[in-house]
Specification:
Layout lengths: L5 E6 L3 H12 L4 E5 L13 E3 L3 H11 L3 H8 E7 L9 E6 L1 H13 L4 E5 L2 E7 L2 E7 L4 E9 L8 E4 L2 E4 L11 H8 L4 E7 L2 E3 L9 E3 L22 E5 L2 H8 L23 H7 L7 E6 L6 E5 L7 H8 L10 E3 L2 E7 L17 E3 L9 H19 L13 H12 L23 H11 L5 H23 L1 E2 L1 H10 L9 E2 H5 L6 H4 L3 H9 L4 H12 L1 H18 L17 H10 L4 H5 L6 H10 L3
Parallel strand pairs: 1-2, 1-9, 2-6, 9-20
Antiparallel strand pairs: 3-5, 4-5, 7-8, 8-9, 10-11, 10-19, 12-19, 13-17, 13-18, 14-15, 15-16, 16-17, 21-22
Length: about 625
């Protein structure tokens, strides 16, 4: 069946696997996606939504580079919100509710439209290894398929174990079996593995809910979208709803704590701190008498509902009894109970920044196998692994994003340098250069890079360059155009800003905190410029940010440039840290294990002090 050698084999068809397949195939590699169920490619295993705080920035970065997650999200969205609009633009984060079935269908169709992508449905039970190099995979039927590179994106399937109360059974997802064989082989080779946990809430029938007792959560009045391409904008949206738990609900849940696998010792692994189960929330936040529950529709035409905020592994009868006491859920009908799942992962300090493993050449890990949680984090790793697998086998320079270039760069650097002992989730607070890494400028930051490596197409580059030029010209217009006091004072008065008594440049008055582009468009000269140059909302937003935050942006660029000096100080590949006695013992151990590529990366390793960095710089002749 497989007499040819593929360039790249991708194992697993989730968000990481789908992006890895698309990236490698679109760049020209013959790519085979092997997954246990072709009907669940791009499956939203947990909540039917993409984006959110920092995650939305990642989706826009994937899109800017030429990935598919933004396009798929726009085509299957049922609601769109820009979160954190009351804060500065560095915090604005797009989020979309999606039609779960359409999302998976759009991913399947998108992949099938890539000529270089092939598909095969079966479980991969092992890798083909020759010396210290991966040369293919072996399936559960004993079929050997050879490839120049392999990307593992196994999600929660590696020795997956599902927990519902005191019941447990093997599975990588509800209704799907676990994957076995790979962990054992990699551990025998010398890899370190661990266990992590995640969970999901019950799915219920919306026809059994009383929405009159809940608070509607509509989408934005003028919804935006994720992709920088001409994907559809939502004209009609579906509401989500919000309700709350109560002391009664908490008491009913506590009745099952003795049968909870989280509390009785059955689950020994660590779950995501920032997305706790309902029983964990009750236990950790005992002073809270209620918690928010978001009722999210699973699509346009289905009655299935996702109960966001009620993730649990308690026994199904406890789940049902407690949920019936939530306002609006008195007559609830379950589609399926919530559950927790434990699975194998590999501490990501065993990887290079390309996501290639240090122990085996041409083997790449992406997604939850690296200890992350979230569709967006997984998709971005898949994209980068697919890109770098293609570049490696074609003997081209690797593609690595720095911390000041992308949230994707922050994510991967955190994983490789610091590792993680709990499921890693991206937040804006993790990025020290978040003023530079905004959702509005991901195309300006990354599309030229995506085009240069052969992933982003010319249409993307053209649209980005046009937006950039129009924004720069509009900023120049504000810098060069003067105003008269009688024109701007009525606007300043309307926002309680100090009046002016002499003419000055528009840039200066626009820089004031309470003035927005909407206010500036009240000026005839500004509105005439916008109409004459046919400026769209993206250009208007980009211009406003460049005017109002130019000082902050320049300051952050300066700080990033300073750090770049340390990024340019490279550490030889086989540097012997054991010989440097003036390094602390912990620093020697960490440096030997992680093998940082630059002094900058070494400085971010926990346990490596500024004094240790000074010692390294001296030994490197700096």
């Amino acid at each position: 069946m497989f007499d040819k050698e593929y360039d790249v084999i991708v194992v697993g068809g989730g968000h990481a696997g789908a992006e890895a397949t698309a990236a490698a195939a679109n760049m020209g590699s013959s790519t085979l996606l092997v997954t246990m169920n072709l009907q669940t490619i791009g499956q939203m295993s947990c909540n039917p939504a993409m984006g959110g705080i920092a995650k939305g920035q990642i989706v826009r970065e994937i899109d800017a580079l030429g990935g598919y997650s933004g396009i798929i999200t726009d085509k299957s969205a049922i609601q769109f919100k820009m979160l954190n609009k009351s804060k500065g633009p560095a915090m604005w984060s797009p989020r979309a509710q999606n039609d779960r079935m359409r999302f998976a269908e759009e991913w399947r169709m998108a992949l099938e439209n890539i000529p270089n992508a092939d598909f095969y449905q079966e479980m991969v039970s092992g890798l083909l290894v020759e010396g210290n190099k991966v040369v293919g995979v072996k399936t559960s039927l004993g079929i050997e398929i050879r490839a120049k590179a392999v990307v593992l994106t196994n999600g929660t399937f590696l020795n997956g174990l599902i927990h519902i109360g005191d019941k447990q059974f093997g599975g990588g997802r509800a209704g799907e079996k676990a994957a076995t064989g790979i962990t054992e082989q990699l551990v025998d080779i010398g890899f370190e593995s661990g266990r992590m946990k995640t969970g999901t809430p019950p799915r219920v029938d919306s026809r059994s809910l009383d929405y009159s007792k809940m608070t509607p959560q509509p989408g934005d009045e003028n919804p935006e979208k994720f992709s920088y391409l001409a994907t559809p904008t939502l004209k009609v949206q579906r509401d989500c709803h919000m309700t709350r738990t109560s002391e009664l609900v908490h008491d009913l849940l506590r009745e099952g704590f003795d049968r909870s696998p989280m509390f009785n010792g059955r689950i020994k692994s660590i779950g995501p701190r920032y997305c706790p189960s309902i029983e964990d929330k009750i236990n950790r936040f005992a002073d809270k008498d209620s918690h928010q529950i978001f009722v999210e529709p699973e699509g346009w035409n289905t009655v299935e509902v996702y109960v966001n905020g009620f993730s649990t592994s308690l026994p199904e009868d406890v789940q049902y009894k407690a949920l019936k006491s939530v306002a609006g859920f008195e007559n609830v009908k379950f589609f399926r109970p919530g559950y927790a799942i434990e699975y194998d992962y590999f501490p990501p300090t065993q990887l290079k920044h390309t996501l290639e493993t240090k122990l085996l050449d041409n083997l790449y890990f992406a997604g939850q196998i690296n200890g992350t949680t979230g569709y967006e984090e997984a998709a971005s790793q898949g994209l980068m692994a697919g890109i770098n697998a293609h570049l490696k086998i074609n003997e081209k320079d690797s593609f690595i994003l720095k911390r000041d270039e992308a949230y994707i760069g922050v994510l991967i650097d955190d994983l490789i340098t610091k590792g993680t002992e709990e499921p890693y989730r991206m937040f804006t607070s993790r990025a020290e250069y978040r003023t530079l890494l905004r959702q509005d400028n991901a195309d300006l930051r990354l599309t030229p890079k995506g085009y240069e490596i052969g992933l982003a197409k010319e249409e993307r580059l053209r649209r980005m360059e046009e937006k950039q030029q129009k924004s720069e010209d509009f900023v120049s217009f504000f810098r060069s155009t003067s105003f008269k006091p009688e024109e701007v004072n009525p606007i300043l008065e309307s926002v309680d800003s100090a009046l002016v008594n002499q003419s000055d440049k528009l840039f200066k008055v626009f820089s004031r905190p309470r003035l927005t582009m909407e206010h500036m468009l009240q000026l005839d000269e500004v509105s005439a410029y916008v109409n004459d140059h046919n400026l769209d909302s993206e250009v208007l937003e980009q211009t406003e940010i460049q005017v109002k935050y130019s000082g902050y942006i320049e300051k952050e660029k300066t700080n990033a440039d300073k750090l770049l000096r340390l990024e340019n100080v490279r550490i030889p590949e086989h540097f012997d840290y054991a010989k440097i006695k003036s390094l602390s013992f912990e620093a020697r151990e960490k440096l030997k294990s992680i093998k940082p590529v630059t002094i900058s990366q070494a400085s971010r390793i926990s346990g490596v002090s500024p004094a240790d960095i000074s010692v390294l710089l001296i030994h490197l002749g700096r």
